[in-house]
TrEMBL record:
GO terms for biological process: L-leucine biosynthetic process. InterPro entries: 2-IPM_HCS-like (IPR050073), 2-isopropylmalate_synth_dimer (IPR013709), AIPM/Hcit_synth_CS (IPR002034), Aldolase_TIM (IPR013785), LeuA/HCS_post-cat (IPR054691), LeuA_allosteric_dom_sf (IPR036230), LeuA_bact_synth (IPR005671), PYR_CT (IPR000891). Keywords: Acyltransferase, Amino-acid biosynthesis, Branched-chain amino acid biosynthesis, Cytoplasm, Leucine biosynthesis, Manganese, Metal-binding, Transferase. This is 2-isopropylmalate synthase. Residues 4-266 form the Pyruvate carboxyltransferase domain. It comes from Schinkia azotoformans LMG 9581. Mn(2+) binds at residues 13, 201, 203, 237. It catalyses: 3-methyl-2-oxobutanoate + acetyl-CoA + H2O = (2S)-2-isopropylmalate + CoA + H(+). It is an enzyme of class 2 (transferase). SUPFAM superfamilies: 2-isopropylmalate synthase LeuA, allosteric (dimerisation) domain (SSF110921), Aldolase (SSF51569). One of its GO terms (molecular function) is manganese ion binding. PANTHER family: 2-ISOPROPYLMALATE SYNTHASE 1, CHLOROPLASTIC-RELATED (PTHR10277:SF9), HOMOCITRATE SYNTHASE-RELATED (PTHR10277).
Amino acid sequence: MRKINIFDTTLRDGEQSAGINLNHSEKMEVARQLERLGVDIIEAGFPASSKGDFRAVKEIADTIRNCSVTGLSRSNMKDIDISWEALKDGAEPRLHLFIATSPIHMQYKLKMTPEQVLQTAVDSVKYAAQKFPIIQFSAEDATRSDLPFLAQVVKAVIDAGATVINIPDTVGYTTPKEYGQIFTYLKENVPNIGKAILSTHCHDDLGMAVANSLSAVEHGAGQVECTINGIGERAGNAALEEIGVALHIRNDFYQAKTGLNLQQIKKTSTLVSKLTGVIVPPNKAVIGKNAFAHESGIHQDGILKEKSTYEIISPELVGVASNDMVLGKHSGRHAFRNRMEELGYTLTTEEINNLFVAFKELADKKKEITDDDLLSLLFEEKLGSSVKFYSLKSLQVQYVTHQVTTATISMTTPENEEVHEACTGSGSVEAIYNTLERIIGSKVHLEDYRIQANTGGRDALAEVFVKINFQGMTSSGRGSAQDVLEASAKAYINAVNRILLQQQYREELQNLVK
Ligand SMILES: CC(=O)SCCNC(=O)CCNC(=O)[C@H](O)C(C)(C)COP(=O)(O)OP(=O)(O)OC[C@H]1O[C@@H](n2cnc3c(N)ncnc32)[C@H](O)[C@@H]1OP(=O)(O)O
Ligand SMILES: CC(C)C(=O)C(=O)O
Protein backbone atom coordinates (compact mmCIF):
# COMPACT_ATOMS: atom_id res chain seq x y z
CA MET A 1 0.00 0.00 0.00
CA ARG A 2 1.35 3.47 -0.92
CA LYS A 3 2.27 5.82 1.93
CA ILE A 4 0.79 9.29 1.52
CA ASN A 5 2.67 12.09 3.26
CA ILE A 6 0.51 14.49 5.23
CA PHE A 7 1.72 18.07 4.93
CA ASP A 8 -0.06 20.19 7.50
CA THR A 9 -0.33 23.89 6.74
CA THR A 10 -2.59 24.96 9.63
CA LEU A 11 0.10 27.32 10.91
CA ARG A 12 0.71 28.91 7.50
CA ASP A 13 -2.30 28.75 5.14
CA GLY A 14 -4.64 28.09 8.08
CA GLU A 15 -3.40 31.18 9.83
CA GLN A 16 -4.09 33.16 6.64
CA SER A 17 -7.84 32.83 7.47
CA ALA A 18 -9.37 36.24 8.05
CA GLY A 19 -9.32 37.10 11.77
CA ILE A 20 -7.04 34.24 12.91
CA ASN A 21 -4.02 35.38 14.80
CA LEU A 22 -2.15 32.84 16.94
CA ASN A 23 0.43 34.00 19.44
CA HIS A 24 3.83 32.35 19.80
CA SER A 25 2.91 29.92 22.58
CA GLU A 26 -0.25 28.93 20.75
CA LYS A 27 1.71 28.12 17.59
CA MET A 28 4.14 26.02 19.62
CA GLU A 29 1.24 24.15 21.20
CA VAL A 30 -0.34 23.45 17.82
CA ALA A 31 3.02 22.26 16.42
CA ARG A 32 3.53 19.88 19.35
CA GLN A 33 0.04 18.49 18.87
CA LEU A 34 0.63 18.04 15.12
CA GLU A 35 3.73 16.04 16.01
CA ARG A 36 1.61 13.82 18.27
CA LEU A 37 -0.92 13.48 15.47
CA GLY A 38 1.86 12.09 13.30
CA VAL A 39 1.83 14.47 10.35
CA ASP A 40 4.91 14.13 8.14
CA ILE A 41 5.53 17.80 7.46
CA ILE A 42 4.56 20.93 9.38
CA GLU A 43 4.47 24.17 7.44
CA ALA A 44 5.12 26.47 10.37
CA GLY A 45 4.77 29.84 8.65
CA PHE A 46 6.31 32.25 6.16
CA PRO A 47 9.63 33.26 7.78
CA ALA A 48 10.26 36.34 5.62
CA SER A 49 6.82 37.80 6.25
CA SER A 50 7.40 39.11 9.79
CA LYS A 51 9.65 38.85 12.80
CA GLY A 52 6.89 37.00 14.68
CA ASP A 53 6.58 34.40 11.91
CA PHE A 54 10.35 34.00 11.72
CA ARG A 55 10.58 33.40 15.47
CA ALA A 56 7.71 30.91 15.45
CA VAL A 57 9.09 28.94 12.48
CA LYS A 58 12.55 28.87 14.03
CA GLU A 59 11.40 27.67 17.42
CA ILE A 60 9.14 25.04 15.89
CA ALA A 61 11.96 23.79 13.63
CA ASP A 62 14.35 23.72 16.59
CA THR A 63 11.88 21.89 18.85
CA ILE A 64 10.00 19.39 16.71
CA ARG A 65 12.03 16.23 16.10
CA ASN A 66 9.58 13.76 14.59
CA CYS A 67 8.32 15.77 11.62
CA SER A 68 10.01 17.73 8.91
CA VAL A 69 9.38 21.46 9.42
CA THR A 70 9.08 23.80 6.47
CA GLY A 71 8.36 27.45 5.73
CA LEU A 72 6.97 29.22 2.68
CA SER A 73 9.20 31.44 0.58
CA ARG A 74 8.75 33.58 -2.51
CA SER A 75 11.13 32.88 -5.36
CA ASN A 76 13.76 35.39 -4.38
CA MET A 77 17.10 35.22 -2.60
CA LYS A 78 16.08 37.36 0.39
CA ASP A 79 13.13 35.13 1.33
CA ILE A 80 15.27 32.01 0.84
CA ASP A 81 18.10 33.33 3.04
CA ILE A 82 15.70 34.29 5.83
CA SER A 83 13.97 30.89 5.57
CA TRP A 84 17.32 29.11 5.88
CA GLU A 85 18.11 30.99 9.08
CA ALA A 86 14.73 29.91 10.48
CA LEU A 87 14.84 26.29 9.35
CA LYS A 88 18.47 25.21 9.29
CA ASP A 89 18.46 23.53 12.71
CA GLY A 90 15.33 21.51 12.05
CA ALA A 91 15.28 17.70 12.04
CA GLU A 92 14.91 17.67 8.25
CA PRO A 93 15.08 21.23 6.85
CA ARG A 94 12.95 21.74 3.78
CA LEU A 95 11.98 24.84 1.86
CA HIS A 96 8.62 25.49 0.26
CA LEU A 97 9.27 27.76 -2.73
CA PHE A 98 6.46 29.09 -4.89
CA ILE A 99 5.74 31.23 -7.90
CA ALA A 100 2.54 31.56 -9.92
CA THR A 101 2.30 29.97 -13.37
CA SER A 102 -1.20 31.01 -14.52
CA PRO A 103 -1.58 33.72 -17.18
CA ILE A 104 -3.75 35.82 -14.82
CA HIS A 105 -1.20 35.78 -12.00
CA MET A 106 1.84 36.22 -14.24
CA GLN A 107 0.38 39.16 -16.16
CA TYR A 108 -1.45 41.09 -13.46
CA LYS A 109 0.21 40.19 -10.18
CA LEU A 110 3.82 39.33 -10.93
CA LYS A 111 3.97 41.47 -14.08
CA MET A 112 6.33 38.92 -15.54
CA THR A 113 6.42 37.04 -18.85
CA PRO A 114 6.21 33.22 -18.75
CA GLU A 115 9.92 33.10 -19.69
CA GLN A 116 10.81 35.31 -16.70
CA VAL A 117 8.70 33.15 -14.38
CA LEU A 118 10.40 29.99 -15.66
CA GLN A 119 13.85 31.52 -15.20
CA THR A 120 13.01 32.87 -11.71
CA ALA A 121 11.68 29.47 -10.64
CA VAL A 122 14.81 27.66 -11.84
CA ASP A 123 17.22 30.24 -10.39
CA SER A 124 15.55 30.20 -7.00
CA VAL A 125 15.44 26.40 -6.80
CA LYS A 126 19.15 26.26 -7.73
CA TYR A 127 19.98 28.91 -5.16
CA ALA A 128 17.93 27.18 -2.43
CA ALA A 129 19.47 23.80 -3.28
CA GLN A 130 22.86 25.14 -2.14
CA LYS A 131 21.41 25.31 1.37
CA PHE A 132 18.39 23.05 1.74
CA PRO A 133 18.49 19.24 1.46
CA ILE A 134 14.81 19.13 0.44
CA ILE A 135 13.04 21.62 -1.79
CA GLN A 136 9.36 21.65 -2.55
CA PHE A 137 8.26 23.79 -5.47
CA SER A 138 4.67 25.02 -5.83
CA ALA A 139 3.28 26.33 -9.11
CA GLU A 140 0.76 28.73 -7.63
CA ASP A 141 -2.62 28.78 -9.41
CA ALA A 142 -1.55 25.63 -11.27
CA THR A 143 -5.13 24.64 -12.08
CA ARG A 144 -5.64 27.80 -14.15
CA SER A 145 -2.26 27.46 -15.85
CA ASP A 146 -1.57 26.49 -19.42
CA LEU A 147 -0.73 22.77 -19.10
CA PRO A 148 2.24 22.64 -21.55
CA PHE A 149 3.77 25.64 -19.72
CA LEU A 150 3.09 24.04 -16.33
CA ALA A 151 4.81 20.85 -17.55
CA GLN A 152 7.79 22.90 -18.78
CA VAL A 153 8.16 24.61 -15.38
CA VAL A 154 7.80 21.33 -13.49
CA LYS A 155 10.47 19.63 -15.62
CA ALA A 156 12.87 22.59 -15.22
CA VAL A 157 12.53 22.87 -11.43
CA ILE A 158 13.05 19.11 -10.99
CA ASP A 159 16.23 19.42 -13.07
CA ALA A 160 17.23 22.33 -10.81
CA GLY A 161 16.84 20.24 -7.64
CA ALA A 162 13.21 20.25 -6.47
CA THR A 163 12.10 16.85 -5.18
CA VAL A 164 8.50 17.65 -4.25
CA ILE A 165 6.21 19.26 -6.82
CA ASN A 166 3.00 20.79 -5.56
CA ILE A 167 0.11 21.50 -7.93
CA PRO A 168 -2.08 23.93 -5.96
CA ASP A 169 -5.68 24.69 -6.72
CA THR A 170 -5.05 28.13 -5.25
CA VAL A 171 -8.50 29.59 -5.84
CA GLY A 172 -10.55 26.41 -5.41
CA TYR A 173 -11.54 26.36 -9.07
CA THR A 174 -10.95 22.84 -10.26
CA THR A 175 -13.15 19.73 -10.12
CA PRO A 176 -12.15 16.20 -9.06
CA LYS A 177 -12.13 14.88 -12.63
CA GLU A 178 -10.22 17.82 -14.07
CA TYR A 179 -7.69 17.86 -11.22
CA GLY A 180 -7.00 14.15 -11.68
CA GLN A 181 -6.46 14.77 -15.38
CA ILE A 182 -3.85 17.45 -14.61
CA PHE A 183 -1.86 14.91 -12.55
CA THR A 184 -2.16 12.34 -15.35
CA TYR A 185 -1.07 14.97 -17.89
CA LEU A 186 2.04 15.82 -15.87
CA LYS A 187 2.94 12.15 -15.39
CA GLU A 188 2.66 11.62 -19.15
CA ASN A 189 4.37 14.82 -20.30
CA VAL A 190 7.16 15.52 -17.82
CA PRO A 191 9.97 13.03 -18.53
CA ASN A 192 11.73 13.43 -15.15
CA ILE A 193 8.52 13.42 -13.07
CA GLY A 194 9.51 10.10 -11.44
CA LYS A 195 12.27 11.93 -9.53
CA ALA A 196 9.71 13.95 -7.54
CA ILE A 197 6.83 13.35 -5.18
CA LEU A 198 3.66 14.99 -6.49
CA SER A 199 1.67 16.99 -3.98
CA THR A 200 -1.86 18.38 -3.80
CA HIS A 201 -2.98 21.63 -2.12
CA CYS A 202 -6.68 22.44 -2.50
CA HIS A 203 -8.92 25.29 -1.44
CA ASP A 204 -12.61 24.94 -0.72
CA ASP A 205 -14.16 27.84 -2.66
CA LEU A 206 -16.56 25.48 -4.45
CA GLY A 207 -16.70 22.99 -1.58
CA MET A 208 -14.54 20.45 -3.42
CA ALA A 209 -11.19 20.70 -1.61
CA VAL A 210 -11.29 17.24 -0.03
CA ALA A 211 -12.76 15.56 -3.13
CA ASN A 212 -10.12 17.22 -5.32
CA SER A 213 -7.30 16.17 -2.98
CA LEU A 214 -8.49 12.57 -2.97
CA SER A 215 -8.77 12.61 -6.75
CA ALA A 216 -5.13 13.74 -6.88
CA VAL A 217 -4.20 10.79 -4.65
CA GLU A 218 -6.03 8.46 -7.06
CA HIS A 219 -3.99 9.97 -9.88
CA GLY A 220 -0.59 9.61 -8.29
CA ALA A 221 -0.14 12.34 -5.65
CA GLY A 222 2.08 11.12 -2.81
CA GLN A 223 1.54 14.12 -0.54
CA VAL A 224 -1.59 15.94 0.60
CA GLU A 225 -1.50 19.47 1.97
CA CYS A 226 -4.31 20.23 4.36
CA THR A 227 -5.27 22.00 7.57
CA ILE A 228 -6.96 21.05 10.82
CA ASN A 229 -10.70 21.78 10.67
CA GLY A 230 -10.17 22.92 7.06
CA ILE A 231 -9.28 26.46 8.12
CA GLY A 232 -7.45 28.62 5.60
CA GLU A 233 -7.55 31.54 3.20
CA ARG A 234 -11.13 32.45 2.11
CA ALA A 235 -13.31 29.30 2.28
CA GLY A 236 -10.42 27.31 3.71
CA ASN A 237 -8.22 24.38 2.73
CA ALA A 238 -8.84 20.65 2.47
CA ALA A 239 -9.60 19.35 5.99
CA LEU A 240 -6.87 17.06 7.34
CA GLU A 241 -9.26 15.00 9.47
CA GLU A 242 -11.47 14.21 6.47
CA ILE A 243 -8.54 13.25 4.25
CA GLY A 244 -6.92 11.12 6.98
CA VAL A 245 -10.09 9.26 7.87
CA ALA A 246 -11.23 8.84 4.24
CA LEU A 247 -7.89 7.28 3.33
CA HIS A 248 -8.13 5.00 6.37
CA ILE A 249 -11.75 3.89 5.97
CA ARG A 250 -11.53 3.57 2.18
CA ASN A 251 -8.04 2.11 1.89
CA ASP A 252 -9.72 -0.71 -0.05
CA PHE A 253 -10.39 1.88 -2.76
CA TYR A 254 -7.41 4.24 -2.53
CA GLN A 255 -4.85 1.52 -1.72
CA ALA A 256 -3.02 4.13 0.32
CA LYS A 257 -2.23 4.77 3.97
CA THR A 258 -0.93 7.64 6.08
CA GLY A 259 1.23 7.72 9.21
CA LEU A 260 -1.45 9.62 11.15
CA ASN A 261 -2.33 8.64 14.69
CA LEU A 262 -6.05 9.04 14.10
CA GLN A 263 -6.87 8.87 17.81
CA GLN A 264 -5.35 12.35 18.12
CA ILE A 265 -7.77 13.85 15.59
CA LYS A 266 -10.48 15.07 17.96
CA LYS A 267 -7.95 16.52 20.39
CA THR A 268 -6.14 18.36 17.61
CA SER A 269 -9.39 19.69 16.20
CA THR A 270 -10.51 20.96 19.62
CA LEU A 271 -7.15 22.62 20.25
CA VAL A 272 -7.18 24.45 16.92
CA SER A 273 -10.82 25.46 17.29
CA LYS A 274 -10.27 26.86 20.78
CA LEU A 275 -7.09 28.72 19.90
CA THR A 276 -8.34 30.18 16.63
CA GLY A 277 -11.91 30.85 17.71
CA VAL A 278 -13.18 29.10 14.58
CA ILE A 279 -16.05 27.01 15.83
CA VAL A 280 -16.48 23.56 14.28
CA PRO A 281 -20.01 23.27 12.79
CA PRO A 282 -22.02 20.47 14.43
CA ASN A 283 -22.52 18.69 11.11
CA LYS A 284 -18.83 18.77 10.12
CA ALA A 285 -17.62 15.38 8.90
CA VAL A 286 -15.50 13.37 11.37
CA ILE A 287 -15.18 16.03 14.09
CA GLY A 288 -18.56 17.80 14.33
CA LYS A 289 -20.61 17.35 17.49
CA ASN A 290 -23.27 15.47 15.52
CA ALA A 291 -20.89 13.32 13.47
CA PHE A 292 -21.66 10.33 15.71
CA ALA A 293 -25.14 11.30 16.92
CA HIS A 294 -28.06 9.19 15.78
CA GLU A 295 -31.37 11.00 16.05
CA SER A 296 -34.08 9.12 14.21
CA GLY A 297 -35.81 5.97 15.43
CA ILE A 298 -34.96 3.72 12.51
CA HIS A 299 -31.27 4.70 12.73
CA GLN A 300 -31.23 4.21 16.50
CA ASP A 301 -32.84 0.82 16.10
CA GLY A 302 -30.21 -0.15 13.51
CA ILE A 303 -27.33 1.09 15.69
CA LEU A 304 -28.65 -0.83 18.71
CA LYS A 305 -28.83 -4.02 16.65
CA GLU A 306 -25.54 -3.57 14.80
CA LYS A 307 -23.43 -0.40 14.81
CA SER A 308 -22.16 -0.84 11.27
CA THR A 309 -25.70 -0.30 9.91
CA TYR A 310 -25.30 3.47 10.23
CA GLU A 311 -21.79 4.07 11.52
CA ILE A 312 -18.85 3.84 9.12
CA ILE A 313 -16.42 5.54 11.51
CA SER A 314 -16.28 4.57 15.16
CA PRO A 315 -15.93 7.55 17.53
CA GLU A 316 -13.01 5.80 19.25
CA LEU A 317 -11.06 5.76 15.96
CA VAL A 318 -10.72 9.55 16.04
CA GLY A 319 -10.40 9.87 19.81
CA VAL A 320 -13.96 10.87 20.65
CA ALA A 321 -14.52 9.61 24.18
CA SER A 322 -17.95 8.14 24.87
CA ASN A 323 -17.96 9.79 28.30
CA ASP A 324 -15.66 12.69 28.89
CA MET A 325 -16.72 13.53 32.46
CA VAL A 326 -13.49 13.42 34.39
CA LEU A 327 -12.78 15.36 37.54
CA GLY A 328 -14.70 17.14 40.28
CA LYS A 329 -14.16 19.27 43.36
CA HIS A 330 -12.85 16.36 45.43
CA SER A 331 -10.07 15.52 42.97
CA GLY A 332 -6.46 16.06 43.95
CA ARG A 333 -3.32 17.11 42.14
CA HIS A 334 -2.34 13.55 41.15
CA ALA A 335 -5.59 12.87 39.35
CA PHE A 336 -5.43 16.32 37.83
CA ARG A 337 -1.87 15.87 36.54
CA ASN A 338 -2.73 12.38 35.31
CA ARG A 339 -5.73 13.61 33.30
CA MET A 340 -3.66 16.43 31.81
CA GLU A 341 -1.09 13.86 30.74
CA GLU A 342 -3.80 11.67 29.23
CA LEU A 343 -4.87 14.75 27.29
CA GLY A 344 -1.31 15.04 26.02
CA TYR A 345 -0.01 17.89 28.22
CA THR A 346 2.99 17.30 30.44
CA LEU A 347 3.19 20.30 32.74
CA THR A 348 5.79 21.49 35.20
CA THR A 349 4.99 21.37 38.92
CA GLU A 350 4.61 25.15 38.93
CA GLU A 351 2.19 25.03 36.00
CA ILE A 352 0.20 22.25 37.71
CA ASN A 353 0.04 24.24 40.94
CA ASN A 354 -1.17 27.40 39.17
CA LEU A 355 -3.70 25.54 37.08
CA PHE A 356 -4.88 23.51 40.03
CA VAL A 357 -5.95 26.70 41.84
CA ALA A 358 -8.03 27.72 38.83
CA PHE A 359 -9.37 24.17 38.57
CA LYS A 360 -10.49 24.12 42.22
CA GLU A 361 -12.18 27.51 41.84
CA LEU A 362 -14.08 26.20 38.86
CA ALA A 363 -14.86 22.86 40.53
CA ASP A 364 -16.41 24.73 43.45
CA LYS A 365 -18.88 26.35 41.07
CA LYS A 366 -19.36 23.55 38.58
CA LYS A 367 -20.47 19.99 39.26
CA GLU A 368 -18.60 18.17 36.52
CA ILE A 369 -15.33 19.26 34.97
CA THR A 370 -15.04 17.90 31.44
CA ASP A 371 -11.97 17.53 29.24
CA ASP A 372 -13.16 20.55 27.30
CA ASP A 373 -13.23 22.61 30.52
CA LEU A 374 -9.71 21.46 31.40
CA LEU A 375 -8.44 22.49 27.98
CA SER A 376 -10.11 25.90 28.28
CA LEU A 377 -8.44 26.40 31.67
CA LEU A 378 -5.10 25.33 30.29
CA PHE A 379 -5.23 27.62 27.27
CA GLU A 380 -6.50 30.51 29.36
CA GLU A 381 -3.85 30.17 32.10
CA LYS A 382 -0.88 28.86 30.18
CA LEU A 383 -1.09 30.23 26.65
CA GLY A 384 -3.21 33.34 27.16
CA SER A 385 -0.94 34.57 29.93
CA SER A 386 2.11 34.78 27.70
CA VAL A 387 0.84 38.07 26.26
CA LYS A 388 -0.29 40.41 29.01
CA PHE A 389 0.01 44.09 28.31
CA TYR A 390 -3.37 44.67 29.95
CA SER A 391 -4.77 42.31 32.51
CA LEU A 392 -8.15 42.19 34.23
CA LYS A 393 -8.16 42.55 38.01
CA SER A 394 -11.87 42.86 38.76
CA LEU A 395 -15.17 43.47 37.05
CA GLN A 396 -18.51 44.60 38.39
CA VAL A 397 -21.64 45.13 36.31
CA GLN A 398 -24.85 46.75 37.45
CA TYR A 399 -27.80 45.81 35.26
CA VAL A 400 -31.33 47.04 35.97
CA THR A 401 -34.17 46.40 33.52
CA HIS A 402 -35.06 49.51 31.40
CA GLN A 403 -32.11 51.48 32.79
CA VAL A 404 -28.59 52.09 31.55
CA THR A 405 -26.06 49.47 32.62
CA THR A 406 -22.85 50.41 34.39
CA ALA A 407 -19.58 48.47 34.38
CA THR A 408 -16.75 49.14 36.83
CA ILE A 409 -13.38 47.62 35.98
CA SER A 410 -9.95 47.44 37.57
CA MET A 411 -7.04 46.58 35.29
CA THR A 412 -3.27 46.44 35.25
CA THR A 413 -1.81 48.51 32.39
CA PRO A 414 1.32 47.76 30.32
CA GLU A 415 3.15 50.16 32.66
CA ASN A 416 2.09 47.90 35.55
CA GLU A 417 -0.22 50.49 37.09
CA GLU A 418 -3.58 49.56 38.49
CA VAL A 419 -6.40 51.68 37.03
CA HIS A 420 -10.13 51.82 37.83
CA GLU A 421 -12.78 53.08 35.45
CA ALA A 422 -16.56 52.99 35.05
CA CYS A 423 -18.79 53.55 32.02
CA THR A 424 -22.37 52.99 30.99
CA GLY A 425 -23.81 51.16 27.99
CA SER A 426 -27.14 50.01 26.62
CA GLY A 427 -26.31 46.45 27.70
CA SER A 428 -23.80 44.70 29.95
CA VAL A 429 -21.29 43.79 27.23
CA GLU A 430 -21.44 47.29 25.75
CA ALA A 431 -20.86 48.83 29.19
CA ILE A 432 -17.84 46.57 29.72
CA TYR A 433 -16.40 47.33 26.29
CA ASN A 434 -16.95 51.10 26.72
CA THR A 435 -15.09 50.93 30.04
CA LEU A 436 -12.23 48.91 28.57
CA GLU A 437 -11.97 51.32 25.64
CA ARG A 438 -11.71 54.25 28.04
CA ILE A 439 -8.91 52.54 29.99
CA ILE A 440 -7.04 51.68 26.79
CA GLY A 441 -7.52 55.26 25.60
CA SER A 442 -7.97 54.53 21.90
CA LYS A 443 -10.94 53.62 19.68
CA VAL A 444 -11.53 49.87 19.44
CA HIS A 445 -13.99 48.67 16.75
CA LEU A 446 -15.74 45.44 17.61
CA GLU A 447 -16.15 43.54 14.33
CA ASP A 448 -17.38 40.19 15.61
CA TYR A 449 -18.58 38.76 18.90
CA ARG A 450 -19.44 35.11 19.44
CA ILE A 451 -20.25 33.15 22.53
CA GLN A 452 -20.57 29.44 23.11
CA ALA A 453 -20.93 27.10 26.04
CA ASN A 454 -18.24 24.46 26.45
CA THR A 455 -20.71 21.74 27.33
CA GLY A 456 -24.41 21.58 28.04
CA GLY A 457 -25.86 22.50 31.44
CA ARG A 458 -26.46 25.71 33.35
CA ASP A 459 -22.98 25.76 34.85
CA ALA A 460 -21.14 25.35 31.53
CA LEU A 461 -17.98 27.36 30.99
CA ALA A 462 -18.57 30.28 28.60
CA GLU A 463 -16.17 30.89 25.75
CA VAL A 464 -16.23 34.23 23.97
CA PHE A 465 -14.47 35.00 20.70
CA VAL A 466 -14.15 38.56 19.43
CA LYS A 467 -12.63 40.22 16.41
CA ILE A 468 -11.54 43.82 16.86
CA ASN A 469 -9.89 46.55 14.85
CA PHE A 470 -7.57 48.70 16.89
CA GLN A 471 -5.03 51.27 15.71
CA GLY A 472 -5.40 50.04 12.11
CA MET A 473 -4.84 46.36 12.92
CA THR A 474 -7.31 43.50 13.17
CA SER A 475 -7.08 40.70 15.68
CA SER A 476 -9.15 37.96 17.19
CA GLY A 477 -9.21 37.25 20.92
CA ARG A 478 -10.72 34.66 23.18
CA GLY A 479 -11.66 34.41 26.82
CA SER A 480 -13.27 31.77 28.94
CA ALA A 481 -14.84 32.00 32.37
CA GLN A 482 -17.83 30.66 34.12
CA ASP A 483 -19.45 34.04 33.83
CA VAL A 484 -20.25 35.23 30.31
CA LEU A 485 -19.44 38.85 31.13
CA GLU A 486 -16.03 38.00 32.53
CA ALA A 487 -15.36 35.83 29.45
CA SER A 488 -16.43 38.78 27.25
CA ALA A 489 -14.01 41.15 29.00
CA LYS A 490 -11.16 38.63 28.81
CA ALA A 491 -11.69 38.03 25.07
CA TYR A 492 -11.58 41.77 24.35
CA ILE A 493 -8.44 42.30 26.44
CA ASN A 494 -6.82 39.26 24.81
CA ALA A 495 -7.44 40.72 21.32
CA VAL A 496 -6.02 44.13 22.33
CA ASN A 497 -2.94 42.42 23.85
CA ARG A 498 -2.35 40.50 20.62
CA ILE A 499 -2.36 43.73 18.62
CA LEU A 500 0.02 45.39 21.06
CA LEU A 501 2.36 42.42 20.70
CA GLN A 502 2.24 42.69 16.89
CA GLN A 503 3.05 46.39 17.19
CA GLN A 504 5.98 45.59 19.46
CA TYR A 505 7.29 43.11 16.85
CA ARG A 506 6.91 45.71 14.09
CA GLU A 507 8.82 48.31 16.06
CA GLU A 508 11.60 45.83 16.84
CA LEU A 509 11.77 44.93 13.14
CA GLN A 510 11.93 48.58 12.08
CA ASN A 511 14.70 49.24 14.60
CA LEU A 512 16.60 46.27 13.19
CA VAL A 513 16.26 47.61 9.62
CA LYS A 514 17.35 51.18 10.59
C1 LIG B 1 -1.25 31.44 -2.45
C2 LIG B 1 -0.65 31.85 -1.17
O1 LIG B 1 -1.18 31.55 -0.15
S1 LIG B 1 0.77 32.71 -1.24
C3 LIG B 1 1.15 33.14 0.39
C4 LIG B 1 0.34 34.27 0.82
N1 LIG B 1 0.71 34.64 2.16
C5 LIG B 1 1.03 35.88 2.48
O2 LIG B 1 1.08 36.76 1.64
C6 LIG B 1 1.26 36.16 3.93
C7 LIG B 1 2.57 36.80 4.19
N2 LIG B 1 2.83 37.96 3.36
C8 LIG B 1 3.39 39.12 3.81
O3 LIG B 1 3.63 39.29 5.00
C9 LIG B 1 3.74 40.16 2.81
O4 LIG B 1 2.91 40.03 1.66
C10 LIG B 1 5.26 40.01 2.39
C11 LIG B 1 6.12 40.41 3.60
C12 LIG B 1 5.60 38.61 1.95
C13 LIG B 1 5.58 40.95 1.24
O5 LIG B 1 5.17 42.24 1.59
P1 LIG B 1 5.47 43.47 0.59
O6 LIG B 1 6.92 43.51 0.31
O7 LIG B 1 4.87 44.66 1.22
O8 LIG B 1 4.76 43.10 -0.79
P2 LIG B 1 3.23 42.85 -1.13
O9 LIG B 1 2.70 41.77 -0.27
O10 LIG B 1 2.46 44.12 -1.13
O11 LIG B 1 3.35 42.34 -2.64
C14 LIG B 1 3.92 41.11 -2.93
C15 LIG B 1 5.15 41.27 -3.83
O12 LIG B 1 5.75 39.98 -3.98
C16 LIG B 1 5.72 39.57 -5.36
N3 LIG B 1 5.51 38.14 -5.39
C17 LIG B 1 4.36 37.47 -5.12
N4 LIG B 1 4.60 36.16 -5.19
C18 LIG B 1 5.89 36.01 -5.48
C19 LIG B 1 6.70 34.87 -5.66
N5 LIG B 1 6.19 33.67 -5.51
N6 LIG B 1 7.99 35.04 -5.93
C20 LIG B 1 8.52 36.28 -6.06
N7 LIG B 1 7.78 37.41 -5.91
C21 LIG B 1 6.49 37.26 -5.62
C22 LIG B 1 4.56 40.38 -5.94
O13 LIG B 1 4.66 40.48 -7.35
C23 LIG B 1 4.78 41.72 -5.24
O14 LIG B 1 5.92 42.30 -5.82
P3 LIG B 1 6.04 43.90 -6.12
O15 LIG B 1 6.16 44.52 -4.76
O16 LIG B 1 7.28 44.02 -6.92
O17 LIG B 1 4.81 44.29 -6.84
C1 LIG C 1 1.77 28.69 -1.83
C2 LIG C 1 0.71 27.78 -2.31
C3 LIG C 1 0.99 26.36 -2.03
C4 LIG C 1 -0.63 28.12 -1.76
O1 LIG C 1 -0.81 28.33 -0.59
C5 LIG C 1 -1.73 28.12 -2.71
O2 LIG C 1 -1.48 28.08 -3.91
O3 LIG C 1 -2.89 28.18 -2.25
